[in-house]
Amino acid sequence: PGRASEAAFLVISLLMFRCCRPVLRRKAGILPSLEDLLFYTIAEGQEKIPAHKFTTALKATGLRTGDPRLKECMEMLKVTLKTTSDGALDRHLFKKCVQSNIVLLTQAFRKKFVIPDFQPFCAHMDELYDNAKNLSGGQVADYIPQLARFSPDLWAVALCTVDGQRHTVGDTKVPFCLQSCVKPLKYAIAVHDHGTEYVHRFIGKEPSGLRFNKLFLNEDDKPHNPMVNAGAIVCTSLIKVMNFMNKLAGNEYVGFSNATFQSERESGDRNFAIGYYLKEKKCFPEGTDMTAILDFYFQLCSIEVTCESASVMAATLANGGFCPITGERVLSPEAVRNTLSLMHSCGMYDFSGQFAFHVGLPAKSGVAGGILLVVPNVMGVMCWSPPLDKLGNSVRGIQFCTDLVSLFNFHNYDNLRHFAKKLDPRREGGDQRVKSVINLLFAAYTGDVSALRRFALSSMDMEQRDYDSRTALHVAAAEGHAEVVRFLLEACKVNPVPRDRWGNTPMDEAVHFGHHDVVTILRDYHTQYSPQETAANKENADDIYLSM
Ligand code: GLU
């Protein structure tokens, strides 16, 4: 269905240029609106769209019906459906439902999201999930009863892209505690609130090379970094507000396990020892109540998330601090960049160096079995499975992360151009030729000369025609884009007198719409024009253009 609707959309997009009397047509109100184009795309030739067909098509793009960005659309859909007898939407009703969120919806159906072909990508994710599911090694943490009670079979992966495309597989709705996965979040909040310089007056930036809960400071008597307990405890003394967590998760599930908090406090002798040591070494800002900070530290460890909600948190980090599903700016770019850097070097306990080497992505694990993984500019992932390896990382989670970068070119140092053995889900699939006609005509239509230059430079055929034999020159002439017309004629040496299906030339268009400047440019070419000459010129078009 994805392919079919994509094909339908391409056809519809082509229709836009069909007779290309846009000014008149727009005035007459017959130029198709985005809502109409979307209707034709989803309806696939039918008169009406059944509601379930719409939601199914929507989900295939990765959007959820519960996405806060689609609230108006979904509410209107609910109301509208009550007025229909058959639960289907005609063009008029459809328009009513989608118009408030048309920009996002158009983006989704034109495959403009970061993972354009989302369904095949999800199928790969499910395979990776299944592959790790069979692993049986590892131990569930048992130092507190709240962790010991988890079944070793629990296993979940959730992802959220920077465009808010969602996919989940496994036990993604079971709450668990962030534990150490909260460390990068509170560090990010501290930097967001106080800036890098202030935060790092108290905490270093270097991997410690020691276990996360070691009672040890660096040569300046500071904790090594904010991802180990000492650094995280100091970091706790720098932050105040909790509503950040809700914002990071786009208001999805964030809870608190009071029982875990109590247990952590009761069993937290090592953290108390670290606290007193930090206090002795004057590691906290002046006036800090160390025991209150320790309580806050244990509370932060006890924040509950689900795999789903945590994937949104990770996606906010992947998206430069903007929550993808609310659009809200939660963290400064500086805070996010710092955080990702330190997750990359220090996020995976004593496996951090190896993880950076093999996986090459920022991540942070926690004792509850979570791994918060970030693919910067692409997506956030939360993996969760309680059994831990000897270094304290989720066994299945590590397997998943490793497999992920073997399949896709997500490793920070994968070359995006030449490493053909790995998949790049960011790349657009589909019929490139049809797309290139659309891109070409669309650029001509909007007067986007710089896009046209790029196309010409990448040796696109600038004389391509749509199925009505319209060329970029026709479209630009009809729209009165003199600069585009000049570029096409002078730089690209396109045929100045192509005839479309109705026999019209670009000159006819320019005259018809009264674009006198375009008429003047075209006239020069018309008088010079002879077919042989143009064909000969065209062979040199690339060279001439490149030398401009
Ligand atoms: N509550 C644990 C501690 O501070 C967190 C452990 C972890 O997730 O690394 O010791």
From TrEMBL:
UniProt cross-references to SMART domains, sorted A to Z: ANK
One family name in Pfam for this protein: EF-hand_14
ANK repeat start-end pairs: 468-490
Cross-referenced PROSITE patterns: ANK_REP_REGION (PS50297), ANK_REPEAT (PS50088)
Main location: mitochondrion
Enzyme class: hydrolase
PANTHER family on file: GLUTAMINASE, GLUTAMINASE KIDNEY ISOFORM, MITOCHONDRIAL
Family per similarity comment: Belongs to the glutaminase family.
Name of this chain's protein: glutaminase
Organism, as annotated: Salarias fasciatus (Jewelled blenny)
Lineage: Eukaryota, Metazoa, Chordata, Craniata, Vertebrata
